[in-house]
Write a structure and sequence with these properties.
By secondary structure, this protein is α/β, with parallel strands linked by helices. The protein is built from ten helices and 14 strands. The strands form three sheets. Strands 6-7-8-3-9-10 form a six-stranded mixed β-sheet, with helices on both faces. Strands 2-1-4-5 form a four-stranded antiparallel β-sheet. The chain has a four-stranded antiparallel β-sheet with strand order 12-13-11-14.
């Protein structure tokens, strides 16, 4: 088995007494599009800033392409693209000037061609000052800058903030295209539909800790089911107090909806003892799975 492109071991970061992340472990393989999901404040950006050597960990270690993120950060950054959640760097520069500066920094041979190609794709005005751009256009600058040097690894922190739906669609297709060429993508977001569209494997982070790591399809199909049951007579929630039933909602017309993780045969036996009219069992969306874990 090849060495992981990102290898995080028992990584923790505390800000005084405040927790950033705690005992985070992740291995991401070469060529993956890996999702990292959780709400704001869960620890996503803290993890990424450690990977990019913007902050130091309290304990633990992190490697990218086998290199220590602290000791070998210069070499790492020459092969990694990064899109931060807040795209505000070098705001006093003109877009073209900034991108040319980045191309020289990365010693890109075909810098002008790459700048033109990516800027045209995202309809980015190269003559405008970054300070005068909208949030969405600043994010486009960040996207172009991150891809100029054809990085082996692309790290994204809430990358679609400010992008309109058309630009998001172009961005996703570009990511798929780059991934087909071999680029590994670490995609951090709280927008679950994006992660579901792009990623095959995902880690859910809650309160600074990884609480679940799974293939998305397995995560959707494994254990958790969304159940809607309609009964002839009115039923009480207490009737269904077996292990595995959560998020119970009583609807009109004697309908009961809930999440269930457990033996489906046991559930059907329980439901059928109450004069059932209709039963629907389906896979929950990733959003519903996510909320299930957070509850």
């Amino acid at each position: 088995m090849s060495e992981p492109i990102i290898d995080i071991r028992d990584l923790s970061k505390f800000y005084g007494k405040a927790r950033g992340i705690e005992h985070v472990n992740l291995e991401i393989g070469v060529g993956e599009i890996f999702g990292f999901i959780g709400p704001n404040g869960a620890g996503k950006s803290t993890t990424i800033r450690i990977l990019m050597n913007m902050i130091f960990p309290t304990s633990g270690s992190a490697k990218i392409m086998g290199m220590d993120v602290i000791k070998e950060t210069k070499k790492i950054k020459s092969q990694v693209g990064y899109i931060p959640s807040d795209a505000n760097a070098y705001s006093s520069m003109v877009v073209q000037e900034f991108l040319r500066y980045c191309a020289r920094f990365y010693e890109i041979q075909d810098g002008e061609q790459r700048i033109t190609e990516l800027s045209e794709l995202f309809e980015l005005d190269l003559k405008r000052k970054i300070d005068d751009l909208s949030m969405g256009n600043r994010k486009k600058v960040s996207i172009v800058q991150s891809l100029l040097h054809n990085p082996k690894l692309l790290i994204l922190d809430e990358p679609t903030t400010g992008l309109d739906p058309l630009m998001q669609s172009k961005f996703f297709e570009l990511l798929r295209s780059e991934n087909r060429k071999g680029m590994t993508i670490f995609y951090s977001s709280h927008i679950l539909s994006e992660v579901q569209m792009l990623c095959k494997r995902v880690a859910i982070i809650k309160d600074g800790k990884i609480i679940q790591m799974e293939d998305i399809e397995t995560l959707r199909k494994k254990q958790l089911k969304k159940v809607h049951a309609e009964f002839r007579d009115q039923v009480r929630e207490e009737t269904f107090s077996i292990t595995g039933i959560t998020s119970v909602i009583t609807g009109p017309g004697n309908i009961l909806s809930f999440m269930y993780s457990g033996d489906i045969n046991e559930l059907v036996r329980l439901l059928s003892a109450n004069k059932m009219i209709n039963l629907m069992i389906e896979e929950p969306s990733l959003d519903e799975i996510f909320m299930h874990y957070y509850k």
